[in-house]
């Protein structure tokens, strides 16, 4: 072996020894540092609570509900390469229970969805969830159902959105269609049984509660618009000189006028109303959400065109047939009425009631049947728009219920698919947000008119008034959930009924309002 070879071998052996020694020193230093960190964490309760254990760090799952994924942002969760079928199954598992627990109206439903998707499953952060909620607020239709669709869209695409919508609505839909058929078949509309008499005044008390809740959010200009909308709605409904069909045009005009007024006011140097500023831009997280939804702009435009064609076609066909004195197919008439109403109502909930009542009473049913169905709907999970299924079922059985439900739900579902791709642009437009202030204020005015109209229909005796006061107190003072308010009203009304205790049966109409 040459001298140079021996030197090379000695150099390699020396380097290997030094590298191993350095590595061992590094391990010792790291271990010492980790021990110090553990001692610091043990001494500091806040650090101990914020530091995950090794077991926690090793846990990962696709739901994003445990372990290391809890530490990830919503954007990182959206970037995960989870197979579509896995995400679709997640949507089914997550949304299936909601159809049975979503009581309490739109606001309660949104709170349930936030707890389910943001707090528990961590699919979204609050900012993303609020953004998706805002899309539904800016469109006609049931807001809670639209939020269900948009969040499922963001998780697993269009098919998941439709699936979540059906899971959320089907339980209430099935029960209300069954109730509508049974009431139309077995109940005398002019003499409701003892177990139904308390439902109507209890349901109306919840409409008053909704009006109060909506009204608290209005600024001073919104209060004026709400008041004008209420007065004009009452005038249209209570003047013999005005055609009953005028509401088909007056209600939409009130909404448009309200939006135009707040838009003009927002451009003043010192506006009367309070307006939120438009978003400065489209952040990366929202962009990721839109990519997962997977609907390009041109497809959104086609879907919007589909909605416009359906609305225009059905209105034109029905109007022309009536003008020419021809008989309109009953199911086409049901669909046209419901699709038109569903295309005009922003915010969902009780806002839809005055339009529904004007269309179906007395043409489809009596006021008592309408109010009994309203009480049943208030006690069911899901959106108030499911009330349409009951109305259609009373009028034309199961088929009528399905047609009415598809008609009123259709615009909201179609438009949420159409508008999501455009939202990143609309949210930057100040006129769009300022206009919505006026639309919402006018819509709240319609709810105010509905309170008075429905009260006059539901409260005919002293017993009805007693049920109304009891139910309203439970809802507005003690915060009792809507299903239990309706149940309490039904029980109290049954106890006071003439076939039971027979108390408070003086008819106010016959006695001129005197007790």
What does this structure look like?
α11 runs antiparallel to α23 and α13 runs antiparallel to α21. This protein has a domain of 329 residues. It is mostly helical and 515 residues long. The N terminus is likely disordered. The protein is globular and about 65 Å long. The termini are far apart. It contains 24 helices and no strands.
What is shown here, in short?
The protein is mainly α and 515 residues long.
Draw up the topology in text.
Layout: H1 3-43, H2 45-50, H3 54-58, H4 74-79, H5 84-95, H6 98-101, H7 105-120, H8 126-137, H9 143-156, H10 158-186, H11 199-215, H12 220-238, H13 247-266, H14 284-293, H15 297-323, H16 330-342, H17 353-360, H18 367-378, H19 387-419, H20 423-426, H21 430-458, H22 462-476, H23 482-496, H24 508-511
Helix pairs in contact: 5-9, 5-10, 7-9, 8-9, 9-10, 9-14, 9-19, 10-18, 10-19, 11-18, 11-21, 11-22, 11-23, 12-13, 12-21, 13-21, 15-16, 15-19, 16-19, 18-19, 22-23
Protein name: Chromate transporter
Pfam families: Chromate_transp (PF02417)
Transmembrane segments: 165-187, 193-214, 221-237, 249-266, 295-317, 402-424, 436-455, 467-496
């Amino acid at each position: 072996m040459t001298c140079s070879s021996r030197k090379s071998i000695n150099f390699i052996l020396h380097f290997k020894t030094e590298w191993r020694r350095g590595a061992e020193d590094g391990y010792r230093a790291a271990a010492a540092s980790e021990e110090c960190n553990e001692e610091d964490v043990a001494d500091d309760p806040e650090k101990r609570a914020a530091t995950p254990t090794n077991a926690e760090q090793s846990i990962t799952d696709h739901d994003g509900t445990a372990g290391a994924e809890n530490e990830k942002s919503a954007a990182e969760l959206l970037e995960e390469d989870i197979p579509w079928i896995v995400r679709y199954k997640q949507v089914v598992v997550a949304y299936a229970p909601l159809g049975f627990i979503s009581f309490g109206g739109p606001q309660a439903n949104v709170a349930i969805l936030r707890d389910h998707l943001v707090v528990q499953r961590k699919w979204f952060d609050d900012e993303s969830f609020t953004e998706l909620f805002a899309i539904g607020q800016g469109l006609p239709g049931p807001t809670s159902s639209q939020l269900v669709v948009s969040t499922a869209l963001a998780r697993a695409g269009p098919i998941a959105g439709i699936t979540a919508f059906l899971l959320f609505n089907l339980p209430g839909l099935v029960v209300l269609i069954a109730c509508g058929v049974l009431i139309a078949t077995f109940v005398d509309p002019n003499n409701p049984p003892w177990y139904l008499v308390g439902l109507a005044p209890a349901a109306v008390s919840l409409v008053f509660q909704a009006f109060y809740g909506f009204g608290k959010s209005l600024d001073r200009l919104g209060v004026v618009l709400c008041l004008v909308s209420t007065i004009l709605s009452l005038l249209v409904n209570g003047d013999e000189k005005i055609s009953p069909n005028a509401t088909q045009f007056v209600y939409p005009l009130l909404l448009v006028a309200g939006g135009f007024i707040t838009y003009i006011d927002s451009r003043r140097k010192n506006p009367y109303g309070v307006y939120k500023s438009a978003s400065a831009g489209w952040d990366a997280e929202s962009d990721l959400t839109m990519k997962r939804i997977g609907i390009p702009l041109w497809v959104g435009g086609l879907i919007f065109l589909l909605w416009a064609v359906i609305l225009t076609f059905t209105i034109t066909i029905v109007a022309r047939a009536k003008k020419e004195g021809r008989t309109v197919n009953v199911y086409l008439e049901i669909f046209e009425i419901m699709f038109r109403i569903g295309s005009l109502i922003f915010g969902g909930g009780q806002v839809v009631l005055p339009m529904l009542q004007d269309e179906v009473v007395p043409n489809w049913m009596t006021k008592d049947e309408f109010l009994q169905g309203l009480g049943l709907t208030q006690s069911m999970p899901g959106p108030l728009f499911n009330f349409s299924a009951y109305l259609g079922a009373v009028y034309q059985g199961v088929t009528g219920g399905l047609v009415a439900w598809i008609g009123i739900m259709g615009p909201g579902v179609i438009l949420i698919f159409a508008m999501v791709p455009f939202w990143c642009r609309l949210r930057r437009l100040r006129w769009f947000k300022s206009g919505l202030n006026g639309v919402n204020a006018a819509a709240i005015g319609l709810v105010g008119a509905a309170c008075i109209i429905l009260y006059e229909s539901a409260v005919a005796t002293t017993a009805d008034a007693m049920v109304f006061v009891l139910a309203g107190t439970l809802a507005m003072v003690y915060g009792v959930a809507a299903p239990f308010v309706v149940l309490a009203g039904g029980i109290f009304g049954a106890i006071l009924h003439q076939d039971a205790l027979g108390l408070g049966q003086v008819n106010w109409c016959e006695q001129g309002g005197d007790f």
